[in-house]
Write a structure and sequence with these properties.
254 residues, alpha/beta, TIM Barrel, eight-stranded parallel beta barrel, 12 helices, globular, binds 2-phosphoglycolic acid
């Protein structure tokens, strides 16, 4: 059975003092979980987050990286810099970066390769817009992203990527994909990976769902056959809410 991987995406929220406060509560609440827990924080919070989680079962990631080692790239943070301070995970290709920073699949592919070269596991986001879903091309869109973003990766690398299926229309909108629709899209992704890399990689790769995951819907979503956890934005900002999502198995109301 695949493990569950539950990641938080704080986006542009929380300062270092709030980060410390968050972990003072959160660490205790999730210490017994069998699930893998990652929180992707803003760069400014990385030091506080690493310090607050040292010796715990919580892993810290970032939300982006630059694929160059170093250079005249004002405002960017390189994969090498992140490696040097012990970062092991980074979100890559989030739809907000694809949309507002015009990140293309070619560029995202470069970042994934750079992440692997620096021992950082990519949490790769893919997903369709509402229009693409309505026009019946969601599968085409997601599978194209997978083919482009995985270009040139070895099977060994591919197996380690955490894929987050995030329908754009469900992000931050309060609208969640139905568990069946989310599972269907995760299956499309798994089958695309199967055609690229074969059974071993397809059956092992972690595919999360993201888009308005909350304490009230996490159990239903994460219990589906092809959903191996979630990428959680808004609901990862409060320790109690995110802990409930991480501890979804204990939710007796569903
Ligand atoms: P949300 O964000 O949970 O607030 O919808 C998810 C994400 O953007 O990763």
């Amino acid at each position: 059975m695949r493990r569950k991987v539950i990641a938080g995406n704080w986006k542009m929220y929380h300062n270092p003092a709030e980060t410390k406060e968050f972990f003072e509560k959160f660490t205790e609440l999730v210490k017994d979980t069998p699930n893998e827990v990652i929180i992707c924080v803003p760069y400014i919070d990385v030091a506080a987050a690493l310090e607050s989680t040292a010796g715990t079962n919580i892993k810290i990631g970032t939300q982006n990286l630059n694929h160059e080692e170093a250079g005249a790239l004002t405002g960017d943070v390189s994969c090498k810099m992140l490696q040097d301070i012990g970062i092991k995970y980074s979100i890559i290709g989030h739809s907000e970066r694809r949309q507002y920073h015009h990140e293309t699949d070619d560029f995202i592919n470069l970042k994934i390769k750079a992440a692997f070269a620096h021992d950082i596991v990519p949490i790769l986001c893919v997903g369709e817009s509402l229009l693409e879903r309505e026009k019946g091309i969601a599968k085409y869109k997601i599978c194209t992203q997978i083919v482009m973003d995985f270009d040139g990766l070895t099977a060994e690398q591919a197996k380690k990527v955490v894929i987050a299926y995030e329908p754009i229309w469900a992000i931050g909108t309060g609208k969640t994909a139905s568990a069946e629709d989310a599972n269907e899209a995760c299956k499309w992704i798994r089958e695309e990976i199967r055609s690229l890399y074969g059974d071993e990689v397809a059956d092992a790769i972690i595919i999360q769902y993201g888009g308005s995951v909350k304490p009230t819907n996490a159990k239903e979503l994460f219990s589906m056959s092809d959903i191996d956890g979630g990428l959680v934005g808004g609901a990862s900002l409060k320790p109690e809410d995110f802990a409930e999502i991480v501890n979804f198995e204990r939710n007796e109301n569903i």
